Structure formats: structure tokens, C-alpha cells
Amino acid sequence: MMAMHWSNWDRTDLAVERAAIVRERTGEIPGLESSQEQINGITITRVQVTHAYAASRVGKPPGRYFTLECPELKYRNRTLLKNVAQIIAEELTALAGLPRQNDILVVGLGNWQATPDALGPRVVSQLMVTRHIREYISQDLGGRLYPVAAISPGVLGITGMETADIVRGIVQQIKPELVITVDALAARSPSRLFSTIQIADTGIQPGSGVGNNRPGLNTESLGVPVIAIGVPTVVSGASIAVDVLQDYFSRFNPHARPTIDSVHDFLSQDLLELMVTHKDVDMQIMEISKLLASAINKATQPAITEEEMLDYLQ
Amino acid sequence: MMAMHWSNWDRTDLAVERAAIVRERTGEIPGLESSQEQINGITITRVQVTHAYAASRVGKPPGRYFTLECPELKYRNRTLLKNVAQIIAEELTALAGLPRQNDILVVGLGNWQATPDALGPRVVSQLMVTRHIREYISQDLGGRLYPVAAISPGVLGITGMETADIVRGIVQQIKPELVITVDALAARSPSRLFSTIQIADTGIQPGSGVGNNRPGLNTESLGVPVIAIGVPTVVSGASIAVDVLQDYFSRFNPHARPTIDSVHDFLSQDLLELMVTHKDVDMQIMEISKLLASAINKATQPAITEEEMLDYLQ
Amino acid sequence: MMAMHWSNWDRTDLAVERAAIVRERTGEIPGLESSQEQINGITITRVQVTHAYAASRVGKPPGRYFTLECPELKYRNRTLLKNVAQIIAEELTALAGLPRQNDILVVGLGNWQATPDALGPRVVSQLMVTRHIREYISQDLGGRLYPVAAISPGVLGITGMETADIVRGIVQQIKPELVITVDALAARSPSRLFSTIQIADTGIQPGSGVGNNRPGLNTESLGVPVIAIGVPTVVSGASIAVDVLQDYFSRFNPHARPTIDSVHDFLSQDLLELMVTHKDVDMQIMEISKLLASAINKATQPAITEEEMLDYLQ
Amino acid sequence: MMAMHWSNWDRTDLAVERAAIVRERTGEIPGLESSQEQINGITITRVQVTHAYAASRVGKPPGRYFTLECPELKYRNRTLLKNVAQIIAEELTALAGLPRQNDILVVGLGNWQATPDALGPRVVSQLMVTRHIREYISQDLGGRLYPVAAISPGVLGITGMETADIVRGIVQQIKPELVITVDALAARSPSRLFSTIQIADTGIQPGSGVGNNRPGLNTESLGVPVIAIGVPTVVSGASIAVDVLQDYFSRFNPHARPTIDSVHDFLSQDLLELMVTHKDVDMQIMEISKLLASAINKATQPAITEEEMLDYLQ
After folding, report:
1. How far apart are CA A304 and CA A308, in angstroms?
2. Model confidence pLDDT, tens digit, residues C112-126
């Protein structure tokens, strides 16, 4: 989770949640479009931020944000997991213009030592990394393989270096055509934990709009397109607090419902240091990382069958 | 965390919190005693449950519960960490009658794959395990070593077996004189996360009083004294919710403050599946497991200097 | 690797190698039978030790030893891996009388901190553990699930306890109908590393015949049948030394070929502390553990399809 | 182990062994100097390669190679470990011109999934990484901290990228004043495993002189000084074979001793795929990585006491 800022009750990395919050406050705004479709318990929302004004309001850079929501994802169901992996693979293919003849670099962001933040490294460890083997393997298979490299660089607290600096350095050396990042996200609503997948063609801008200037991972900083895949694994303690108060008053005393600002002022410092996750976080991270790795493998290697693919996976 | 039940807003494994809750509701009750002392920012509370009635009200078996609280523990401060380790070592020594000439078995409970639940396995991995080497090492040192064995058996979801069954089987084979368990706990208040250490001479009774009958780890089931050491690493989502509502009304409208029961009824199912932990959970688990391992090593091996001890630690 | 003794040049856990060594020295002996078949690059040898005399000569307890050899196993080939997993599953089914209505306990022996010895724990981490979930899952699937428990207890150096004691304790508690052990083995010949799989219905007798009396894992000690599965992952340094000398003289000066005893006397102490493994040991362990886990899952859960099985695997 | 080539019987990364081999074959050569001193069971050898001719014969680039040998290092002895850590710290200080006001980058080379190759990543995980915290910590301590960053980038088989490319990219971004690499080495003689430490001011040139052109990690490629620290953790199977034959003939039939070339021709392909390590490889890697991390911490942070240092270590 790059640059998670817990000080705000409405902290979320999901464009779909930010768009909803902004609309709730100020109604429709120009430059912010969205559409939604539902299939078999899966909701797909496409948010597009087309103008700078909308971007500043939503706090996300201009671009396309695909969101898949499926509450059932939290429960092991192989058919559903396969269907969702297929949808994600197709969306990735479209958004990233896959397959690519030249190198793709997949970057697993986050901290492998903290389960809720280990999503990126876990996905990367299950990818089909091929950049170095194309010439060494059988002609038949080799001809159908596309080159993929992958790395999990660790987090600032472990390396002492901004992850964006590490990735930029690697990109300038190997010059991939495309970068795909995978990261654990923060959501506003706990119902989205481990049941929502976001794909954005904007890359990652840590703490966007919150006045920090930590370097991002995007076309501007890396010089190549950056597709960012993420799944919410945590909600801030403050979000839960605001939810509870609002729900309570909505139900029992709508007229006395406090404003967001008054709630926020009253939240204790302790609460702001907390994060909320699912009590089966280890299982959830395992399942969703398997799903994402499968989707990325499919999208980057469309000419390889699933059977062949299993030969390469760890 | 053996048998964590998140369905109750006041779920806590800390006797000190349970005693406070019971007293708040019904005033003093016979068979429940406690005393408190403060030294240099450290609060030590001793709760003693002496009667069955008090035990059933508090939901903890009769016995002695030592609790050390120190909010500063969350911040790395070597002098403080050393002081607290020394206090814990002394309390363990007193409560467990250490050192012991015969075998001690330390059991690291919890799931190493989920950071907030990995406390027990992390502590065990840093212990000075000596039971098998006494006869193989230098006469001088060997004469001063006491026999310690240790295991982290995993959790039901990984082994398919109740941890209590596994431990009972091992105890019946190696027949230790004493069992020490180390476990991640649930607290009621987030301020206690990673800043409270509980030592109880009662062993562990999962979900006591909540109508389950999962096997415990205690004198009754194991046939030897069981000292349980724990540190709260999680709070339930419901606890946070109740806190927020109570704090809000206490401040802005004390007369309208809802009853606990009405609050609980209104909590969503989603909230009950959540757990709350510190956002630096990986760092906190690392520090507190180092502290506990150091304390257990000191208490079990009082004749070995710290210098000598470092030769054996991983 | 329980009780590996490196002091002997002919150290091997493979019955097929021991039988060959004994025959080379003394010719056929009564009570030692073997047969061999070859299919598609796979050699299957069945050794049966039927008399105590043969057992003492071979240094393996009476029983049946199935050995599959396939040099190609070292190279990733999914079709071959699947075929071999199927053969192992069938042999396990026959030797262990699977499926079983009552509990099976799978024990992963060895040290997860040393890659060449991590085979058992790696296999266990990929098993379908079901003993605790039968009643909680869908009627349809639950009716077809057989109960499997699994544990990787660690090694003496980590726990301070004999693994056999730990396992015996657990067996006496959960009373399984059958125990299956998985372990990394030592071979005599480096050509067998990661390309041979042994299944024995004798359980494990550490260092058999070499004058030690460490406790075994077998029917005698556990009270239930024990099927032992193993794959050689190491060869002793002394084995390599003897091979080289013998090969050299066989080729250049057969008449001067030194006796085994004279070779052994001259081996340096340093050599005896060494172990030899494949230079891609991490990859080899990963592949073969996947294969064995798949075979055990198939054999223990014959009513579950591969598709359904994937729902449960980590 | 970058670019380990097992095809040669005399494969070694140790300059001290290469110098000895060259001298044995051709006597003293110009441009190759060495000196030796012994203190308390520790042998320190300094080899200096001053001319290109010597470099091509020795197969190591011109520069200074410090080697510490201490057979007792294999056995846990805290006093000795501390002494050796101190000597290494002093040598590092001298060779690298420490401390440095500007950034130092420590790179842990090798594969954390294969115990014998995990030295670099294990050392890095125990370092005091400070580059990102200088401004956030107490004035007093901050003023005495020097900036250190660290990373373990993984190996080609995992990332699909040459490690040298990754490191060069990072160096160009963060522009450290100095790079220190830590790597598991191959030795020629098994007696050197885990008991020899080499420090070179030449950086790393994978497979030097063996006709490959994989990129190195040195001043030429990175633009800053590179100090390479390494410990032999493996010996090739072919080395063992040659040793055994030579020892055998030296003892029993010196006149018939085969030439190296004839021995090499006769070694089987199988043997060339093997690596030899210590049978307690997990324990050895743990101890020596602790020693190296301690030495690097001391050398890079001379103004911090050991007590203070422990506050920062994991």
C-alpha cells in the first residue's frame, strides 16, 4: 500500500468510491463519467475522469478506472473465481493492449511481512516470468511466449528507498513497453474488502491530492504506460467510525445526524492508527492473489494453454 | 488466537478488561479482587478470581491474572523494552516457579500465515531450546542449562486438528513439568493493542462461558500447570463501533446514549467479520515477540548470562 | 531427513539401492525379492523383504518397498509429472487401502529452514486438509470427502523433542486409521536425486541397523499402519568420493581398484560433514513437492474431481 | 551466487584459491602479490592483483582481495564471532573509506528460496537501513546516523532480469557514493565452506575469464566503487571428485597420479549438476549472516553504540 494516509475518514484508493462521495456532496460534475452493468452477481463499473477539474475533485488523475465487485468472491467458489479471472484477463487485455511483443514489467508493491499488504508480492510470486527463457526453451513453445519480467521491490521501511525510484531505475534499464503494478488498496467501505478489483490505466499516484509529493508510478514518471491493478484489503479505523455514526442516526434519528466534519474532529488519535481487515485475511489474500496471477498470466500469454502454463508456475 | 468469537461487541481475552466491564455493570462482586501499581509509565494490575461465581460473571476461570500496560511499548525504546522484559521475566519466574529441573514445554499458538496472529510462532522461533542438547554441550554450560522444548503446532484450519489435542498428545509423551503458552489476544479497547501483556496461571479456555466446548489448554486437560502469556493484537470491528457511539453520545448528548444491546442489534453482519489491528502490525509483532522471547529465555535460564544466551538464539 | 548418518559411504534410505549393494557383495539372499517393470521411461521396482535375516542384511525392516525411477522427472514436463502423480496415487491407494472412512494423518518430516530437507513440510502445505470441515461444507461435497489431517512438526534441533515422540502423542489423541509420512531421503547415487520416489509400508526406522535406537515411526511405535513416502534430495560427500574412485579404476586400471574399506579409511573428516544436492535444489523441491501433494490428494480423495480439489488447495 | 559455472573442476570465487592454483601450475607471476598473517586461529591473506596479465591468469580483475579464514567459525562461539565481526568491520572501514556522508547501497545477491544461496538476502534483512529515517528521528541520534539503503533484488530465474541491470537502474536513481554487495560464493576446497570471508574492492564480475559476458557489478558498470563481501557456501561436485582422486594417488601411488585434464574428461555429466554444501547449511547460513550484518552495521554506523543499534534491527 503505497503512501497510505489514515488521517482522513474517507481515505480510499477506489475511484468508484471517490466518485460516489463527490457526487453525494456536490451532484454530477463535468468530466466525470461512469456506467455500470451487472451479470450474475458481478457488478462492473467503469469510471472515466476526462477533465482536470473532475480529477482534482475526485482526487484521482484523469484516466479510465474499471471496477469489478462481487461479494461472493470472499467465499471459495471455483467456478466464480474462474469467471472473474477471465473477466479481469479480458479487461487487462483491452486496457493494456495485450499481448505485447516487447517486454512487460510487473511490479508487486507492498510489504510481504504484513499479511494485509502482501498482495503484490504474492501475485508476483505466482506469475509466469519468461523474459529470460524465450531462447532457451522449445522452439514450438518459445515462438508463442511473450516476454514478462517481474519484481517485488519491498517498501520504504525495508529498503530505505522510495519504491518509485527503484522501479524507475529498473524501467530505464530494461525499457519495457508496459508496466503493470499490483497493490493492496484501502477502501472506504468494509463491504468491498477482498471483493472488489480495480484496474486503472493511470498508474499510481500515492496520496493524490492530499498535498504530498511522493513520486508516482505512471506514464509521466516512467515514460511508458502503467496499468495499476488493486484489491482493497484494509479500511481505516476512522471509516468504520463514521459509518457507524451515520448508520445509527439514519436509522434512529435522521434529523440529528452529525456532519462528517464534526464526526471527524471527535475521532481519537488512537483510532487513526488502526486498520481494519477481514478476520480471515491470510486465506483471502491467498485466494485473491491466485486469481490475479491467473488473470495476468492469461492476458500476457494468450497463446499458451492453461495446461502449458502450469508447467511454468511455482 | 484460539477460538476467537467476533460476534460479541465486548469480546476480550484480557481479564483486566472483563473485570472492568463486569464492575461497570454490577459493581463489586465477591471473589474478584484486583490491585494496581504504577511505575515509570508502566501500570501493573493483578486480578484474582477466587470463586466460581466471579469466574462465571467475568467469564474467566479462577486464577491469577497479571497485566502490564505501557502505551510507550508501541514505540521502539530499547531501555523501556529491556525494563519490561525484566518485569515479565520476574513475574513468570514467580507465577511459574522457575527455574524447573524438569522439562518445560513452550507452545506458540496461532497462525504464522496471518501477521496479527503470528505472535506465538514468532516467539517460539526465538527461544533457547535446550531439552535435546544438555548432554552434548560443554560441562560448564550444560550444568547450568534447564531443559526447554518448544513447538508451534499451527491452527485448526491448517492441521485439521484441534490445537489442544495436539498439545495434549505431546504433553503425554514428553511429560513436561510445566507448559507455557504464547498467544495473540483480542482486546476490547484499541488502546491496548501491542501495549499490554497478560500472564495468567489458568491456561487457556477458548471462548469461555460463551457456550462452546472446545478443549482448553489448562491443568485440567493437560495434567500439569499451564502459564498463558498473551498480547492483544486485534480488536473486533464491533468493539470499535460501540466505542464510537458511546463516546459520541457521552460528549454531545449523554441523556440519549443508547444501551449496549440496542447498539449491538444494529451492527451489520459485515462489521462482525472484521478485525482491527495496528497499521504497523508487522513491526509491532516483531518487537513484542522479541521482548517476550527475551523474557521467557531469562526466566527459564536464570543461570545463563545474556552473552552466553546469544550463542543459542537464532 | 530423520537421523541422517553421513559417516558411511553407502548411506542410503532407498531399499532398492540397499538390495543392490547387498546382492553385489553376497549374491541373492533368501527373503529378499524384487521385480522390475519399465513403461515409457519410467522404471518401477518392487522390493519385498520377507524374512528377518534379509532385513538385517539389507538394513531395512520387513515389508514392501515400491520405487519409481524416472530421470526425466528433473526436467519440467507437465504430461510426465501428471503421469507419475497418477502412478504414485494408484500405488498409494493399493498399499494404504485408500480411501479410508476414518482419519488419515499425514506427517511432513524434515526442516523447512533447509531447502534440501524441506520436502515434507512443502508437501503438507499443499494438501487438502479436511478432517475439521466435513460437517461445515455443502452436503453434496461433504458426503464425498474423506477426513485428512496433516502436520509438519519440525526437527529435533528446533523443538528439542524427538519427532517420533511428537507424532506418537498426536496419534494417541486423534487416533487415525493410518499415518502417511513424507520425507526427504538420502540416496547412494547422485543420479537418483529428485528422480526417484519410494513408497514403503514399513514406516520409518531412523538409521536402521546402525546401532542407534532413536524411536521410529511405524506400526510398532504408533499402533497403526504407516506408509512412508520419500524422495532422495541429498547424497553424502563420501558416496561421491567412493563413486569417483571406483569409476576411475574401473575405467583405467580395473585390477588396482581399491576395496571399499580402504577407500573409506582414507576419506577426510571434512568430507563426512558434507552433503551433495542438485544445484537447482529450490526448483526441484518445488516441483516434486507439487507432484507428491497431488498424488496424496488424489489417493485420499478419490470422489473429488481435480476441479473441485483446487477449491481447497492453498 | 551470480553466474555460477559448475563445469570446471576448479571453479572458485575466492582470489586466494585462484592465486594458489595459478602459482602451483606456473610459479610466481608478476603483478600478483600476497601476504599472510595469523592471529589466534585466524588467518588473514591479502592478495593484490596489480597487472592485467596477472588478472587474466588468475581470472579475477585487478584489485585488492582480503580473505579471513577461521575453521572454528563453523562452531558457535560467541567470543570468536564477535572478534571476527570486528576484524571484518575494520577491513570494510579501510577498504570502503567508511563512514560515508552520502548514501551507501547494500545489495544482497542470491536466491532466498535456496538455503545455500540465501546469504545475501539474509544479511540484508538484518541491516540497519537508515536512508529514509534520518530526518524523522531524535536530533541526537539522527546527527550520528549515516544513510544506508539496502535491497535483495532476487535472481534471474525469479525476476527475468539480470541482477546487474536492476542494480544499475537503482544506482542511477539514488546515486549512492558506494555499493556493497553480499553474496554466497563457490569455493574450490570444502574446508573453506562457512569458514572463509572474502572482501574485494573489485566488485563482482560473474564467471570472469570463462568467456561469458554477463554484466558485472563494479565501478565500470555502476560508476561508483563496489565492495564485494562473500562467503563460500558451496563447492562443485567436480571439485570433490578431483580432490579425492588426487589425495588417493598422492597417498598410495604418487607416480601414477592422473593429470587434472584426464580426470576432468572422465567426470560424469551428473556430477557437474551437483553442488556440495555443509549438512547443517541452515544453521551455518544463519550464523554467518548474523556475523556479516553485524560487521556491516558497525562499519557503516561507527557513531552508534551496539545498544543503540539493537533498537533498529529486526
Report:
1. 6
2. 999 999 999 999 999
CA distance linking residue B120 with residue B229, whole number of Å: 9
SS3 at position B84: helix
Cis amide leading into B99 (omega within 30): yes
Q: Which distant-in-sequence residues (6+ apart) come within 8 Å of A49 by Cβ?
A: A15, A31, A32, A55, A58, A60, A61, A62, A63, A65
Helix (H) or strand (E) holding C197: strand C196-200
Quick one: what percent of chain D has pLDDT higher than 70? 89
Q: Least CA distance to B125: which residue of chain C? A: C158
| Residue with grid cell 526447554, as numbered in its chain | B148
ipTM: 0.90
User: What is the amino acid identity at position D58?
Assistant: V
**Residue D198 in contact with residue D16, Cβ under 8 Å?**
yes
**pLDDT tens, residue by residue, B252-291:** 888 877 777 777 777 777 777 899 999 889 999 999 999 9
CB pairs under 8 A between A and C: 16
φ, ψ at C164 (rounded to 5°): -60, -35
State pTM to two decimals: 0.92
Please give the pLDDT value at position B270. Answer: 74
User: How far is D159 from A152, CA to CA, in rounded Å?
Assistant: 9
**SS (HEC) of chain D:** CCCCCCCCCCCCCCHHHHHHHHHHHHCCCCCEEEEEEEECCEEEEEEEECCHHHHHHHCCCCEEEEEEECHHHHCCCHHHHHHHHHHHHHHHHHHHCCCCCCCEEEEECCCCCCHHHCHHHHHHCCCCCCCCCCCCCCHHHHCCCCCEEEECCCCHHHHCCCHHHHHHHHHHHHCCCEEEEEEEEEECCHHHCCCEEEEECCCECCCCCCCCCCCCECHHHHCCCEEEEEEEEEEEHHHHHHHHHHHHHHHHCHHHCCCHHHHHHHCCHHHHCEEEEECCHHHHHHHHHHHHHHHHHHHHCCCCCHHHHHCCCC
pLDDT in tens, C77-111: 778 999 999 999 999 999 999 998 899 999 999 99
- Joined together, the cell numbers standing for residue A35 give 456506467
- Taking CB atoms and an 8 Å limit, are C307 and A77 in contact across chains? no
Q: Are B181 and B226 in contact (CB under 8 A)?
A: yes
Which of A111, A248, A270 has its CB closest to that of B245? Answer: A248
Phi-psi group of C70: left, alpha or beta (phi > 0 → left; psi -120 to 50 → alpha; rest → beta): beta
Q: Is A237 helix (H, G, I), strand (E, B) or coil?
A: helix
Q: In which residue are the cell numbers 536466491 written?
A: D111
Bridge pairing between strands D63-69 and D42-49? antiparallel
- What's the grid cell of residue C7? 559417516
All domains in chain D, ordered by first residue: 99-313 (3.40.50.1450)
- Contact (Cβ atoms closer than 8 angstroms) between residue A180 and residue A106: yes
Supply the pLDDT for residue D311: 61
| Paired sense of beta strands D196-200 and B226-236, if any | unpaired
CA distance A143 to chain D (A): 17
Q: Is the dihedral of CA D187, D189, D192, D198 positive or negative?
A: negative
Strands B226-236 and B178-187: parallel
Interface test with C, best of B166, B180, B300 (most C CBs within 10 A): B166
Contact C241, C9 (CB under 8 A): yes
Nearest CA in chain A to B7: A279
- CB-CB contact of D254 with C257 (8 Å): no
Any bridge partners for residue C48, and if so which?
A: C33, C64
Half-sphere exposure of C156 (CA within 13 A, CB side): 14
Residue A217 pLDDT more than 90?
yes
